[in-house]
Amino acid sequence: MSTLPTTPLGTTGMDISRLGFGAWAVAGAAWRYGWGATDDADSVAAVRHAVRSGVNWIDTAAVYGLGHSEELVARAIAGLPDGERPYVFTKVGLVWDPAAAPVRSMRPASVRREIEDSLRRLGVERIDLYQVHWPDTGESLEHRGADTAAGATPLEEYWQLMADLKKEGKVRAIGLSNHSVGELERAERIAHVDAIQPPFSALKREAADEIAWAAAHGTGVIAYSPMQSGLLTGTFDAERVAALPADDWRRRHPDFTTRLAANLTVVEVLRPVARRHGVSVAEVALAWVLAWPGLTGVIVGARTARQVDGWIGAGSPTLTPADLAEIAKGIEATGAGRGPVRP
Length: 343
Hints:
alpha/beta
């Protein structure tokens, strides 16, 4: 079994590898945000290969595959000796209906039900990091309005509940995903925010303020979508996007439609840096995120063991100041994304 460099996840007492396995893409196609058809045996093999390669944490969510992702994670880690068992992180707060978009809800009864279901599906007695998936608005995940529904649970109430779950020993650490600096400040007044999970990549850089907040408060940061759902792997072009199966959520997303041309131009910015370092474009994309001050680790998905091999070396290239300046200049020239262009 290989090892990867680790770093403390805030003040949780957990030292995590800088690369973590993201279990969204393995969840299958039978739900609204699937990545197309998957093979469960391949998915389990991908998780195990990542763990054998030194990844020591897995990030999933109850809603991924409507519970199926958590079940696959349980299969993948079953029987592993204690010393080889990865940390398991999951999320709460998206209540699903197979026929509609999930609803953001942190009502106490719903949260209590969700954690018991996750513990059962994962086959564990305690969840290592339990994260609120989205702020509770009481609305559908696809709702674009600014107002919250009358039945939404206030942040102070649901964060107190998360702190209670930690005191009860059901979870080791608690975190917030997709929450703003203002919301993090409100939560911190109730109980320490152990970790946050924002989206962050060369194409989506708006969470720089949240990362800085975390660094100032002893809070760990695990970033999701560091390769922007595959766009920054260096393997996508317009033809591949057009060939995505109808049940792949990416076919409907602006990153793969109206913003595709600008996004693919950023890939060409990364490509010469990858050649100089003798690594893949994907590894440069990940190294760029990992270079950000205050960032603990990144979540990287894979549906096969071979895909894991495409990014497992991302901790090895150290981007030089000249590399970072070149990438920053290229991002600015493309106009892709928003936010600061270099660490």
